[in-house]
Amino acid sequence: MNKPTKLSPDGKADAKDKRDSLLERASGAYGLDKLAPAAVPVMLDANAKKKFAPARKPAQEPAPVERRDETRTQAEPRAQAEPAMEGRRRSDAHPAVQFSGEKHPVSRELLREQGLIDPDGGASRLLEEFRIVKRQVLASARSEGTSVARRVLLCSPHPDEGKTFCALNLALAMAAERDSEVLLIDADFGKPSILSKLGLSSDTGFMDVLADPASHVEDHVIGTDIPGLWVLGAGARTGRDSEYLASERTWEVLNRLTRGTPNRMIVFDSPPALAATPASELAKHVGQALLVARADVTGQVALEDAIDLLSACPDIRLLLNDATFSPSGRKFGSYYGYGD
C-alpha cells in the first residue's frame, strides 16, 4: 500500500503551504492572485447620477372623482340579480343520482349454498374476514376523500381464483354499514355471473349504458331487499368492451354514480387481468384494486404480470383467497359460536 504524499505544483512544499487553505494554495499555484474584483466607487459623480437616475417630476394631484350617491333605485336591481345568479349556480351543479325503484328479493338459501355471506345469518368466520378487508378499503377511501377512491376493482390473474366470490362478499359486508350503500357492478362482460349468484335477472346493464349516450345509468340499477345493496348487471356483450371502457363515456357514467354521494361505494367484478383487456382499462377509473390470489394455485410471476397490467390504479393490494393455514392460528367467528 502506497503512502499518500502531499504534492505542490512547483515541486516544492514550504511551511506556508501547511498553513494556507486549499483554495489559497490553488490560487498561488495557478496564478490567480493577480485577479481582483473591479473597484467600485463609493459615490457616483453628478453626471453619473443623472445618467442612471434622472430626476422625476413631482406627481400631479389626481383629479377629484365625483361620487355617486347609492340610491334605493340603484340598489334594488343588484339585489334582484343576486338570487338569479344563485339560481344559475344551482342549475349548473349536477344533482346527485339517487337509486329508486322496486326492491328485488335475494335468495338467502342460494347465498348459503355458494358459501357466501348470509346477511341474516349473524356473525361467521367468513363475515369476520371480510370485515377486515372492508375496514381497510373504507379507511383508504376516507383518507383520500375523492370519488375515485370510492371505486374498488376486484380482479385476479387467471380464472377460477375467486375474484367474483370476493367481490360478492365484500359488497355484502359493505352493505351492512350504517348510513351507506354499495353498488356492485358486473364488469366481467365475457362471463357475467353476479346476477345469477344473487338470484336476480336483467336484460340490460353496464355495457348498455356505455354504448348508449342517451341512457341514464340509474335506470338500469337493480335494487335488492338487502339494505344498502344495489346491483348493475354486465349487459349485452358488444365485442368492443375495451374500446367502450376507454371512451370518455365511461368517465361520465362513473362520475355520475359517485358525484355528491360520499357514502356510496362502487365495487367492480372484472375479468381476469391476464385473460382479458377490460381489467386494465377499468384500473384507470378506480382508486383501489384488490388482486385476488388463490392459495397454492396463483403463481408469483402471474401476480407480477397482473400488477403491471393494473398499474394505472394508484392503490393495489393483494387479497389471499382459499387459505386453510394461519400462522397465528386465528379463527374469526369461533368466538361467537360460529365457524368451528
From TrEMBL:
Biased composition (Basic and acidic residues): 9-20, 64-75
Any coiled-coil regions, as ranges: none
InterPro entries in UniProt: Bact_polysacc_biosynth/exp, P-loop_NTPase
Stretch list, region Disordered: 1-20, 51-105
Official protein name in the record: Chromosome partitioning ATPase, Mrp family, contains Fe-S cluster
Species name: Qipengyuania nanhaisediminis
